[in-house]
Amino acid sequence: MNRNVLIGLVAILLVAPFFLYPVFLMKVLCFALFACAFNLLLGYTGLLSFGHAAFFGASAYVTGHAAKEWGLPFELAVLTGALTAALLGAAVARLAIRRQGIYFAMVTLALAQMVYFFFLQARFTGGENGLQGVPRGYFLGVVDLNDNMALYYVVAAIFLAGYLGVARVVNSPFGQILKAVRENEPRAISLGYDTDRVKQTAFILSAGLAGLAGGVKAIVFQLASLTDAHWHQSGEVVLMTLLGGVGTLLGPVVGATVVVTLQNRLSEGALNAYVPVVLGAIFVVCVLAFRRGVVGEALAFLKRGKE
Amino acid sequence: MMELIGISPQVLLGQLLLGLINGSLYAVLSLGLAIIFGLLNIVNFTHGAQYMLGAVAAWAGLKFLGLNYWWALILSPVVVGAIGVLIEKTMLKRLAHVDHLYGLLLTFGLALIFEGSLVHWLGVSGQPYPVPPELRGGVNLGFMFLPWYRGWVVVASLTVCLLTWFLIERTKIGAYLRAGTENPALLKAFGVNVPLLVSLAYGYGVALAAFSGVLAAPIFQVSPLMGSNLIIVVFAVVVIGGMGSITGSIFTGLMMGVIEGLTKVFWPEASATVIFVIMAIVLLVRPAGLFGRA
């Protein structure tokens, strides 16, 4: 079953750019990776971070700066961005895990807002204009990334690596400990696990992956802006994960696809001004009637069919 | 002496007053959050939007119905509070038995809906709201000029905070409320209508937010996004103070406003982040918050 899902996913990734605009697909993939990273934390560790845009945005800025001002090649620029996000994640995690549940969400949100103000005021970010004209460069020095198709396949490969990475973590012994923390933290402690450390590790992994997504996005759009670090972005990634299915591997990918498609469609039409209203309405419906999300409901349906 | 370090006492006291105003708004808002959290166990993300709705209701009341400021101060909390009760009855009630994080997500979605749907109507930059004629002008205190309205905001906020404290600590309904925070099942067993109490608590918390929105309307613009960044600061204030005690929320709110005001004078660039930095320090030193129970 899982093998079939994977083969299907790879097949879709391979043929999609022949039917759809590659830049749009790359946007979907960046957000899908971002949502997968977020899901590692919410879905498998039970931690709701309401400040994940800080990592996404920080990496976008650092990647953009590294590629534009330092002249780093694509791979190194993105890697620098992701590492920065992971370091930032380590700092935020240290503070945030001192509180549980709802407070954890509020602390991450507040710290992310602090990061946002830093980017608003720092000189290298270009303030309200953002960091523009980020060069795409060459992949491994040979593949010209200014060609959308070439860039698409690089981005697809990065996404797939990230997705498989999350799957690997979730199915590893470490992933079992994460789920133990999610289900019953005191019990995990009594079994001898240092749950604070487990949570921190998960947070750093998640922040680093979110950074990977943000860095790639900065290269694709050749722009890093305040939108990437704004708390609305943090909210959107929660929505993508919730809509697709919290705690399912494929859920965040489905959720990101739906939300990005919806945003693109709406922004073309007369409803442009009402995008937040539509997103808010989806939020409300999901929470009230659809908490398992698209993939979660589908899995439950299949399970019922078997019984 | 002040002139020696390049800051005039006028500027200092002016910012201190503005800090006190912000602080009293923080106090009323975090008090509302604490009441809602106590009984419903959810963090009301819509709080910022409900603060905004209070201001918008005042503005709309003046423009379309000709209701003056004083009517707005009474009616707009009632109207917005009633909408809150409706939200609680139709939506939040269904979330009582699932993870509390869903409450945060639902109210976040509601905030997006309220703010997004008003942007088109009011414009992002917002609309001015006049200071009521009775409170125009001000008084020269010798060392600074105090506009009447700004003084009124501080006095009115603190009065509402004290009344709320009295309501919760000294009346029968307040005793029910405190009992419900401790153990709703037991309270129900004593024959108290707990679902009604929960609705009222949510409505009251929301009404407090709307009240501070009306107070803020003449000082800041009435804009659809006026509460959206404010609520995050209030969250930080709540983390600093802990939601356990009422006097704690009031005190922390005021203190954070004043600190923010002082930062504006001495290091303007840091004024947007100072409260978050304090939050980080408090988390390191005293994770439960200044007034929280560990």
C-alpha Rg of chain B (nearest Å): 19 Å
Q: How is the main sheet of chain B built?
A: 2 strands, antiparallel
Secondary-structure element pattern of chain B, one letter each: HHHHEEHHHHHHH
Main interface pair? A-B, 40 and 42 residues
How far apart are the first and last residues' alpha carbons of chain A, in Å? 17 Å
- The tally of beta strands of chain B, per DSSP, is 2
Mean pLDDT of chain B comes to 89
> Would you identify the regions of chain B where 5 or more consecutive residues have pLDDT less than 50?
none
Distance between the termini of chain B: 43 Å
Quaternary: heterodimer
Using the CA coordinates, give the radius of gyration of chain A.
19 Å
Strand content of chain A: under 5%
| Tally of helical segments of chain B | 11
**Sheet with the most strands of chain A?**
2 strands, antiparallel
Please report the total strand number of chain A as a whole number: 4
Determine the mean pLDDT of chain A: 92
Percent strand of chain B: under 5%
- Based on CA inertia axes, which overall geometry of chain A fits? globular
List keywords for this structure.
heterodimer; A: mainly alpha; two-stranded antiparallel sheet; two-stranded antiparallel ribbon; 75% helix; B: 294 residues; mainly alpha; 11 helices; 69% helix
